[in-house]
Specification:
Blueprint (H helix, E strand, L loop, with lengths): L1 E5 L5 H9 L4 E5 L2 H9 L5 E8 L3 E2 L1 H9 L2 E10 L3 E4 L10 E4 L1 H5 L2 H6 L4 E4 L3 H11 L4 E5 L1 H7 L2 E4 L9 E9 L11 E7 L6 H11 L3 E9 L7 E8 L3 H11 L5 E8 L8
Length: about 280
């Protein structure tokens, strides 16, 4: 099975994809739009994309692409994010002066930098890409923050493991396919949707009341601006249901109050694994 990801090999998306589909062939893409295009054009079987981090929040670009493209979510998974300091083999921690990584990863390791004032945080475009850069340049005074997968892929040595500030650091990933190829899960208990309401008093309240009346558990709600329509918004929501009939009932009632409703996916809710 061929899976597209955004980012370099060895990224957390790479790790998540292999967790979802062990043994998959990974197809790295530079941009998120390239990931979705690969799925739609049938160049890959599916894609694994990050949709939300428990500390940094939502990946808004991916929500926008889920709305605009003819794909759907087949499953979700949670990956515990463990940041590691990675360098050229044989280099010691006290010699490190520069630490490269994605700005979000650097921000999640502030305690490490406070404890090692001689190492300066240096933003880079990608976590795995920072490891690739350090190993290719063989810089003896540089290190990178990334996953165990990145260290293994590029041949780096882990100088310090688990340097993230908060152990409750998870990223939620979606496995997406072309909509007509999505496999229905009989035990699906979670639905992701996008909807818009008329710009009139009470319309959003009426839409949200549907979830309460159906006894569904609304687990996420956020708004995003509608492209090309200033001050108009699309709402993204996740809700949990006891069965397919409850999901269909909520969607049917919601359509009465909304100018647009799109189901993004119906799947089994993932549970964090504490390890």
């Amino acid at each position: 099975m061929q899976i597209a990801i955004q980012g370099e090999p060895g990224s957390f998306s790479h790790e998540a994809a292999l967790k979802v589909v062990p043994g998959a062939t990974i197809s790295p893409c530079a941009l998120s739009t390239d990931v979705f295009r690969s799925v739609i054009e049938g160049k890959v079987d599916a894609a694994v994309i990050p949709i939300e981090n428990s500390l940094a929040g939502s990946v808004t670009e991916h929500y926008d692409l889920l709305l605009s493209e003819d794909v759907a979510v087949e499953s979700e998974s949670l990956l515990r994010i463990r940041h590691n300091l990675i360098a050229v083999p044989g280099i010691s921690l006290e010699h490190i002066e520069r630490v490269y990584s994605h700005p979000v990863a650097l921000a999640q390791c502030r305690r490490f930098f406070a404890e090692h004032p001689g190492a300066s945080a240096t933003p880079f475009y990608d976590t795995a890409g920072s490891v690739k850069h350090v190993l290719e340049t063989r810089d003896s005074k540089a290190a990178a923050i990334a996953s165990v997968q990145a260290a293994a892929y590029y041949g780096g040595e882990i100088l310090a493991a688990g340097i993230e500030d908060n152990p409750e650091n998870y990223t939620r990933f979606f496995l997406i396919r072309r909509r007509e190829l999505v496999k229905t899960q009989p035990d699906a208990d979670k639905v992701s949707i996008a909807f818009t309401v008329e710009n009139r008093p009470g319309t959003l309240v009426a839409a949200l009341q549907v979830f309460a009346e159906q006894g569904t558990n609304l687990t996420k709600l956020e708004s995003r601006p509608v492209q090309g329509q200033p001050w108009q918004y699309v709402f993204y929501a996740d809700y949990q249901v006891p069965g397919a009939s409850s999901a269909d009932a909520a969607l049917g009632l919601l359509s009465r109050h909304c100018s647009m409703v799109k189901e993004l996916g119906r799947y089994k809710a993932a549970q964090p694994v504490h390890a």
